[in-house]
Structure formats: C-alpha cells, structure tokens
Amino acid sequence: MPAARPGPVRHDAFRTHHTTLLSRKAAIMTSTASVLTAEQDGVLRAIVIEVLELEPEELTDTSSFIDDHDADSLLAIEILARIEKDLGVTIPQDDLTEMTNLDGVRAVVSRSLKETRDV
Asked: Which residues contact 101 (CB under 8 A, 6 or more apart)?
C-alpha cells in the first residue's frame, strides 16, 4: 500500500507564518531605530554615500553595497572605520558580513551602541 500523501499546503498556516515573520522584522526595525538618533542615522547615511561615491538618491535602505553600488571589501572596511571614528563606537570586523546595505549598517551600529550603553 503506498504511503499517504500529505494534504495541500494550508494557505492560512503560511499567511500566519508570514505575518509572524513580518511582525518580528518590524519589531527588530523598531528596536534598531530607537537606538539610533536621527542625527546618527544621518551620519551613517552620509558616510556610506561619501565612501561609495553615490548621489543621495542612489542609496536606499536595502540597496546592496556590492551588487548595486560596486563596493568591495576595502570600501566596506573604510565604511566601518569611518563609522567607528565619527560615532565613537567599536565594531568587530566579523560584523562586516552583516553590513551589506544601509539597514544592515544600522543594525550593526545599533547593536554596538546598545552594548556600549549596557556596559
């Protein structure tokens, strides 16, 4: 006798899972935003624009530094160094892998600022 085949994927279950993921992402983004001041966010944006030699309108929150703006590892290290200098935070080089776009930079810097405040 053949094994029973699973039933069709329930769209309600998928929708619930998707909604949960979106809620978690929104919570993360909210907690990230609450750590950075508007001034700090502006500094981050200005650093990335300057180092990558972009026009302000070219940089979006999710545009890939590598794929969309032709960045390389040296430019990533320069972004990291400028952020450390201008914002007075210490960011481990291991965190560079998360800094693939402006949202990633915000998350890493927010975490570093939070860790600094918690110490």
From this structure: 60, 61, 62, 63, 64, 65
Please check whether residue 65 is in contact with residue 101, taking contact to mean a CB–CB distance below 8 angstroms: yes
How do residues 99-112 score in pLDDT, each as one tens digit? 999 999 999 999 99
Q: What is the pLDDT of residues 58-102, one digit of tens each?
A: 999 999 999 999 999 999 999 999 999 999 999 998 999 999 999
Between CA 74 and CA 82 the distance in angstroms is 12
Per the CB < 8 A criterion, the answer to whether 44 and 119 are in contact is: no
CB neighbour list of residue 43: distance below 8 Å, 6 or more residues apart: 86, 87
63 burial (CB, 10 Å; 0-12 / 13-18 / 19+) is middle
Our measurement of the distance from residue 65's CA atom to the centroid of its chain's CA atoms, rounded to an integer in Å, reads 11
